[in-house]
TrEMBL record:
The keyword Lyase applies. GO terms for molecular function: 4-alpha-hydroxytetrahydrobiopterin dehydratase activity. This is Putative pterin-4-alpha-carbinolamine dehydratase. One of its GO terms (biological process) is tetrahydrobiopterin biosynthetic process. It catalyses: (4aS,6R)-4a-hydroxy-L-erythro-5,6,7,8-tetrahydrobiopterin = (6R)-L-erythro-6,7-dihydrobiopterin + H2O.
Length: 96
């Protein structure tokens, strides 16, 4: 589990992500609704491969991802690693 300073340091390398020990989140805006859903679909594949699953909220073109490691009761490297993967996927689909 990461402490406050470790989370702050990790967030500096994850543009668009914010949060604390209760979880880290990012909202991306896709060009349109189907593209947002495609981002979620690709994140689902990466999440399943990592056996680590974000909470996901889709509202029209805006998709919010929230990560926390429930089994550890806090934010871990699994979360910060998957955050980077999600940002890469979003970027590839033109979601900012
Ligand atoms: C058995 C399996 O490894 C666990 O249930 C995993 C699955 N995905 C998970 N995802 C997240 N975000 N947190 C977890 O603690 C978690 N645990």
């Amino acid at each position: 589990m990461l402490d406050d300073d470790e989370i702050r340091a990790a967030l500096e390398g994850l543009p668009g992500w914010a949060g604390d020990r209760s979880g880290i989140s990012r909202t991306v805006e896709a060009p349109d609704f189907p593209t947002g859903v495609r981002v979620v679909d690709e994140v689902a594949v990466a999440a399943e491969a990592a056996d680590h699953h974000p909470d996901i909220d889709i509202r029209w073109r805006k998709v919010t991802f929230t990560l926390v490691t429930h089994s550890e009761g806090g934010v871990t490297r699994k979360d910060t690693d998957l955050a980077g993967v999600i940002s890469d996927i979003a970027e590839r689909h033109g979601a900012r």
